[in-house]
Write a structure and sequence with these properties.
heterodimer; A: mainly alpha; two-stranded antiparallel ribbon; 9 helices; B: 5 helices
């Protein structure tokens, strides 16, 4: 894509136009420019003159930019409500992911360890075969959920060229919740021995709980913030080199 | 006090009106639309040609237009056409603009416009 359109793309993304609208707009502009250039060449202009005349007819970059951002319906939620996109939405996603993890654990407990007091292997001896695979996959999902959601935040923020403050705040929040989450299971908590699984979030952990929770929080934060910061540095570098 | 329609911006709705009118006759892509506007208004209405696309996208989003990708002569283009909702919108915009143009003409001719056109 031509350099003027590269600049326009960056400006539109930073102004909050969703990437899919930007892509389509620039594709149509590029097609239109090609038609104008062909028309000018057909009228007898040389290649460079035809290109210049075509760009003038297409409109200045400021006009093309303002025409698109004037339409508020094309502003993404990342710009309209960044607190919701990078604060509330990831929290709800993580809660949903943890609900699925609890359900998964409860099902595994019921199917593979019907006599055990907890699904964490206590009292029932080691677990082998498919049951082991099942519980390991659950553990991977449970610990991976905040990281995956964090990567999602970083990806959306990068695509939309959002200022770093909101995504980083969201990543800290997700890392904190993910790092301090605890899952409990007990067969005696409810009558009938059905088994009861609950989650607790030590958002204000006791002194004893801080080291583990802090370590886990820092691991999640590193895994999610670092790729995003590296992308930002690379993007800033490539923008500087093209200017 | 009874509500009254106002015209805060005289150019408001003009690009939409012209585009809907053109596309009601046949489907077109952006470049064709701009050239058709230029030729049918004898270049009286000429804007930066690229600004037509946000208008087209806005009308599509409102459901007044549909867009489809079509390959003609080896080039893939996005063609736009009017939907039934777009036809209603065109009728409303046409009525508004006819009233406005009549009112302005009356002002310019000092109230003689109706006599002049009869």
């Amino acid at each position: 894509m031509k350099k003027p359109f590269n600049e326009l793309r960056e400006r539109l993304l930073r102004a909050g136009v969703p990437p899919r609208h930007v892509r389509r707009y620039l594709t149509e502009l590029a097609d239109h420019l090609a038609d104008l250039r062909a028309e000018e060449e057909h009228a007898g202009r040389s290649g460079a003159d035809a290109e210049s005349a075509a760009l003038v007819r297409l409109g200045g970059m400021d006009d093309l930019f303002k025409a698109m951002i004037a339409k508020r319906e094309f502003q993404s939620w990342c710009v309209r409500a960044p607190w919701a996109m990078f604060g509330l939405a990831p929290i709800f996603l993580l809660i949903g992911a943890y609900f699925v993890a609890c359900l998964y654990l409860w099902l595994g407990w019921k199917i593979f360890l019907p006599g055990a007091d907890t699904p964490f292997g206590g009292g029932g001896g080691p677990i082998y075969g498919f049951a082991n695979l099942y519980f390991q996959a659950g553990k991977l999902y449970y610990f991976g959920a905040p990281v995956l959601i964090g990567w999602g935040i970083g990806l959306i923020a990068a695509r939309q060229r959002v200022q770093a403050i909101w995504p980083i705040a969201g990543l800290i929040l997700i890392s904190w919740i993910g790092g301090t989450a605890q899952i409990h299971a007990s067969r005696t908590a409810v009558p009938g021995g059905l088994g009861h699984i609950s989650m607790a979030f030590g958002l204000w952990p006791s002194i004893q709980g801080i080291p583990d929770g802090l370590f886990h929080t820092l691991v999640i934060l590193s895994l999610t913030v670092l790729p995003y910061l590296i992308w930002r540095l690379q993007k800033a570098h490539s923008l500087r080199s093209t200017q | 006090m009874a509500g009254r329609d106002t015209n805060p911006n005289f150019m408001n709705g003009v690009p939409e009106l012209l585009i809907l009118r053109l596309l009601q006759q046949e489907e077109m892509y952006g470049y064709e639309i701009v050239q058709a506007i230029r030729s049918r208004t004898e270049a009286v209405i000429a804007v930066g040609e690229g600004v037509v696309y946000p208008v087209l996208h806005g009308l599509e989003r409102e459901g007044a237009l549909t867009a489809r990708r079509k390959t003609v002569n080896g080039r893939s283009r996005i063609y736009y056409s009017v939907t039934p909702a777009g036809s209603h919108r065109l009728a409303d915009l046409s009525k508004t603009w006819t009233n406005l143009a009549t009112a302005i003409q009356k002002m310019l001719t000092g109230g003689q416009y109706e006599e002049a056109i009869q």
